[in-house]
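We emphasize that the prediction below concerns an isolated chain of 360 residues; any contacts that depend on oligomerization or on bound cofactors are therefore not represented. The input was used exactly as deposited, without trimming of termini.
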Amino acid sequence: MADPVGVSGDLLDAAITVPRRDFDVVADLRVAAGSVLAVLGPNGAGKSTLLRALAGLTPLREGRITLDGTLLNDARQRLAVRAEARPVGLVFQDYLLFPHMSARENVAFGLRARGVRRSQATATADRLLTQVGLGAAADARPGQLSGGQAQRVALARALAVQPTLLLLDEPLAALDTATRSVIRGELRRQLGDFAGATVLVTHDPLDALVLADTMVVLEAGRVVQRGAPAEVARRPRTDYVAAVMGINLLAGHADGTRVRLDGGGQLVVSQPVHGDVHVAVRPAAIALYGDEPLAGSPRNRWRGSVVGVEQRGNEVRVSIAGPPDVMVDVTAAALGELRLTPGMTVWCAAKATEIDAYPR
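Result of the prediction step, given as a token string:
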């Protein structure tokens, strides 16, 4: 596939307000050439509305969208380039393949709609299907394809028009867990070969961590956090982000290495910080004991009560009521050794070096 013309720097520059019935979606996005931006958020946060606005399918209330130096939207000037005239490829959550067409015909459709000769469109479709590992399934119709195969056909169709911007709306949500893991790895490779800018909408943090270079978190139409996926995961700023990333998020006031928690109790951290802070603690960084641990190095010890016990793969998630209230991950062996049951009193311990405190 040929590189989009003029790819350099930030291809996408969007600062927009998009109306919805319940709230406006307000976002400021910049995506560089060859990079992937993930928009993470709960259902109903406005993620798909944002994607549809970038595609030209939903009008803006305010703001501008510029793609590779070309103005696509300017609400003040009442300028809006039609969706079909934008150099944008879009993969919907349910793929929207034409059921009466073969995989080859689905991929060639966008090219044919833009006036490309049938022979050329067919040759491009065959090349892209081979590229995504479906050369042998070119004559199959969508009903004969697995979910993973349908996803790859939809991606090939989006890439066929040589977009400058690729928009992916929950591209893995329709797949079962095992297939999703395989296709996620393939998608990472395919996006790595794409020279344009990509915006990926998802509610799965693993998609963002594996596929994206940067992440924006959207809640109720507002951007609440942005940054590198690993940094967002390590330092969440809302309860939603902490929950989806599996992190204990506490609030407090710090004076040096000591943090007084808003919900009661205190924690000691390794690096001094001052003022109102978030405190992030990984569930695996907390150890549980039947009696108060007096030996060893943990500087943080507190008593709590077991609220719930839940099997999570090879680990067990234990909910503890403190203060502070925390989630703790233990092994099945530790669960059996401690005989943890709801209502039981335990001691929690965490090293100061395992606790991250940062300004709110």
